[in-house]
């Protein structure tokens, strides 16, 4: 994943909810030409949070991808130095994926809301194994605590 | 639940999932041809119906994908007798009579109209 927009998960409760944080720094390439963190990337952070939640909820067996953003609004903005709190809940869950509702806040003020679908890739659409890419993903999942949440959900 | 209430709610679900005005969603509308539904939209419609009506829809219960995947069900682009029996079993609320006259697999998506969704929901809420 080229853009990892979640710094840390605070909670990954299978089938229920995920809470995560993204801290905005002045040095990020996204802020080279803008005084604020681009809102579509706040949405992407919510999607990445929902993707991890969906994967954990499914026991980690399948790859999760964005299916569709049903609606999104951006009533506020994040600036360098802000901590974006990301919260995603599972509104509905099916074998094919989840319907998620997400909210991003800064100091308690909502800066983004979205409803979106995360789809679990069926085996026939799952990419062929690639050792280098898969190892990179595993390391990232370990670092973010996603691997641990999957293990706990399986136990 | 009254039929008119079901119709109104189904139209709302379809309009929401497909980003359409409810006026565009008519009972005879074919989801793919008339409302330009794509594959991911069928999952969205399923979610919307589950949420709106508080029903649980099993995988492949409403949109059976197996018809496109099982080689016993389609031969040379035409749905076989076995495939037709599968569709009859999975879609008792669909209008299969006219489809049987020219059972090309490419025409299967045309079975999925808003009316079919209404029939499906009626069967679920009555159960």
In short:
The complex is a heterodimer of chains A (155) and B (127). Helix content of chain A is 27%, strand content 37%. Chain A has helices at 39-57, 131-144, 146-154; strands at 8-13, 17-23, 64-73, 83-94, 97-106, 109-120.
Give a quick set of tags describing it.
heterodimer; A: 155 residues; alpha+beta; six-stranded antiparallel sheet; 6 strands; 37% strand; globular; B: 127 residues; mainly alpha; two-stranded antiparallel ribbon; 6 helices
The overall pLDDT average of chain A reads 91
Give the H and E element order of chain B: HHHEEHHH
Strands of chain B, total number: 2
**Overall form of chain A:** globular
Supply the helix-strand structural class of chain B: mainly alpha
Assign the structural class of chain A, choosing from mainly alpha, mainly beta, alpha/beta, alpha+beta, or little secondary structure.
alpha+beta
What is the spatial order of strands in the main beta sheet of chain A?
A: 1-2-4-5-6-3
Describe the oligomeric state of these chains in a short phrase. heterodimer
Tell me the helix content of chain A: 25-40%
Percent of residues in helices of chain B comes to: 40-55%
SSE arrangement of chain A, N to C: EEHEEEEHH
β-strand percent of chain A reads: 35-45%
What does this structure look like?
The complex is a heterodimer of chains A (155) and B (127). Chain A has 155 residues and is of the alpha+beta class. Chain A is globular. In chain A, helix 1 (39-57) packs parallel to helix 3 (146-154). Chain A has three helices and six strands. In chain A, strands 1-2-4-5-6-3 form a six-stranded antiparallel beta sheet. In chain B, a hairpin with a 2-residue loop joins strand 1 (74-75) and strand 2 (78-79). Chain B has a two-stranded antiparallel sheet with strand order 1-2. Chain B has helices spanning 3-18, 39-53, 66-69, 81-90, 97-101, 114-126; strands spanning 74-75, 78-79. Chain B has 127 residues and is mainly alpha-helical. The interface between A and B is medium-sized, with 12 and 12 residues.
């Amino acid at each position: 994943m080229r853009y990892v927009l979640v710094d840390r998960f605070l909670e990954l409760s299978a089938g229920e909810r995920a809470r995560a944080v993204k801290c905005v720094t002045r040095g990020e390439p996204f802020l080279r030409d803008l005084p604020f963190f681009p809102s579509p990337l706040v949405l992407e952070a919510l999607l990445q949070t929902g993707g991890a939640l969906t994967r954990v909820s499914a026991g980690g067996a399948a790859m999760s991808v964005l299916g569709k953003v049903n609606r999104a609004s951006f009533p506020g903005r994040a600036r360098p130095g802000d901590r974006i709190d990301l919260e995603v809940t599972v509104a509905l869950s099916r074998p094919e994926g989840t319907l998620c509702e997400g909210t991003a806040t800064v100091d308690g003020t909502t800066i983004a809301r979205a409803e979106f679908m995360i789809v679990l890739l069926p085996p026939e659409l799952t990419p062929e194994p690639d050792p280098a890419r898969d190892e990179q993903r595993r390391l990232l999942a370990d670092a973010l605590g996603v691997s641990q949440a999957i293990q706990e959900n399986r136990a | 639940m009254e039929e008119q209430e079901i119709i109104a709610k189904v139209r709302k679900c379809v309009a929401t999932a497909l980003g359409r005005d409810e006026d565009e969603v008519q009972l005879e509308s074919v989801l793919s041809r008339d409302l330009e539904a794509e594959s991911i939209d069928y999952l969205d419609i399923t979610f919307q119906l589950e949420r709106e009506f508080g029903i649980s829809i099993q995988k492949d219960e409403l949109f059976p994908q197996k018809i496109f995947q099982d080689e016993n069900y389609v031969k040379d682009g035409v749905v076989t007798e076995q495939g037709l029996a599968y569709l009859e079993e999975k879609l008792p609320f669909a209008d299969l009579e006219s489809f049987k006259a020219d059972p090309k697999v490419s025409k299967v998506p045309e079975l999925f109209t808003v009316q079919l969704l209404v029939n499906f929901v009626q069967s679920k809420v009555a159960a």
